[in-house]
Amino acid sequence: METDKKREFKKVYYKKIKERSDKMMNRALLIYFAIGIVLGFKYDTVDIALMIGGSTLFCYWFTKLFLYDTETYQYLTGVVLGIFMAQFIFQMHGMFEMHFVAFIGSVLMITYQNWKMQISLFLFVFIHHTFFGYLQFSGFHDVYFTQQDYMDLNTFLIHMIFTTIIFSLSAVRAYNYRLMSDSFINQSFEIGRLQAKEIENSELKKVNQELDRFVYSVSHDLRAPLTGMLGVIMLAEKDSNDSKNTDYFRLLKCSVKRLDCFISDILDYSRNSRLERRPEVVDFKLILDEVNANLHSMLGKVDGVKIMVNINGDHQFKSDKTRLTMVLSNLISNAVRYRRLGCEPSFVKVDITTNKNGADIFVEDNGIGIKEEVQSKVYDMFYRGSDASVGSGLGLYIVKEALDKLNASIKLTSVVGKGTKFAIHLPTL
After folding, report:
1. Which of the residues 73, 78, 183, 221 has the least number of beta carbons within 10 Å of its own beta carbon?
2. Short-list 68, 70, 61, CA closest to 29
3. In 189-338, at which residue ranges do the beta strands (DSSP E only) sit?
4. What is the torsion angle, in degrees rounded to the nearest 10, for the CA atoms of residue 100, residue 105, residue 111 and residue 114?
5. Using CA of residue 46, residue 52, residue 55, residue 61, what is the dihedral sign?
6. What pLDDT, in 10s, does the model give residues 275-293?
7. Contact predicate 282/428, CB 8 Å
8. What is the spatial distance between Cα 391 and Cα 383, in angstroms, rounded to a whole number?
9. For the chain, where do the domains classified as CATH 3.30.565.10 start and end?
């Protein structure tokens, strides 16, 4: 039996996934619509782009407006992506390669973690191939299904077999993501229940071992394919001279990086919630070097941001390196993400002073700042201060939870348009 707290957590968790996926899909569909307009001018089919693409987007958003709390509009998403595929093929007078539009859409829909969404797109592709292929090779003119002068039954079947394989792989990946999410939620709540009762027995040890394996599996079996996918996308982007493909690659790369960052946040949350404190002598320079390396790995090369570090004090300081790294990594990466673009040179200042009472850490930036009315909410789980937020909403929540584990305090000072400053006091452990 699920507790009310677990059901509420699941509801919020999957709502956030749906909201992020919706925003990504909205951008993708707008890009598709814009591509249709561009193709319209080149192939004299502007009326098709406006009529088909425009009416499709209107129907999609109208349906989502009234059926947002159901999965109906999600299934409609597959049909919409299929319509754009058919539109592009027709606009380009039968360029068969535009079927890749549907395949890209299939990958984008994985982020909803709903494998059933692949069914509607597959059915549309199947019906489109069957109906338009039959019309073209039955003598109807201007069908523009393909530029080939033949498509026998064997060719059709082979094409549909490969299409089925692609959509099936996407469906399996979406299903596995949902299983991973359910497993994480179940495992986290089970461990929380046992720890709350302070049960130190074999059952708790077993659950911890299973969660260790789960975290290891997520870190390697899930993130490794994402890293490989990102590498392939970057190679394909480098070799492509087609502006349309560049838009697709940029969208895919953004989605992969966002998913990888979200997985990293989930892993940090899991580690912080269950690992015991491990006090050891801290070398802040080594920790900041590690944070800087991870920052480049996560965000790529960031131009125009100067990170200044000042470490004072010769007192030996002991703390939990893992949690301290989480804290500094989240604060510095947030400062870089939410810098003010196109304004004065951006900077992030990290001042650290150690003394006999512990360590004082100040992380200051001149970024976009945080509104005063939402500053009390920034440490809430999954809270995102604005539509400009690109993270998972877990970063500052993890910071606060990690500092609580270290008996530390944190104070936020921020002015919109001027910057943000975090002041942390860490007692030595």
Report:
1. 221
2. 61
3. 279-281, 305-312, 318-320
4. -110
5. negative
6. 677 888 888 888 888 888 7
7. no
8. 10
9. 278-427
The encoded tokens of residue 163 equal 């299409």
Count other C-beta atoms under 10 Å from residue 1's C-beta. Answer: 3
Residue bearing tokens 């829909």: 109
Got the DSSP string for 352-417?
EEEETTEEEEEEEE-SS---GGGGGGTTSTT--SSTT--S-S-HHHHHHHHHHHTT-EEEEEEETT
**Residues 306-361 pLDDT 10s:** 888 898 887 888 888 888 888 898 888 888 888 887 667 888 999 999 988 889 99
Query: 287 — phi, psi (to 5°)?
Result: -65, -45
Amino acid identity at 187: Q
**pTM of this structure:** 0.45
CATH topology of domain 278-427: Heat Shock Protein 90 (3.30.565)
pLDDT tens figures, 253-279: 666 666 666 666 666 666 666 667 788
Q: Are 177 and 20 in contact (CB under 8 A)?
A: no
**DSSP-assigned beta bridge partners for residue 312:** 353
Q: Which residue has the tokens 């049960």?
A: 199
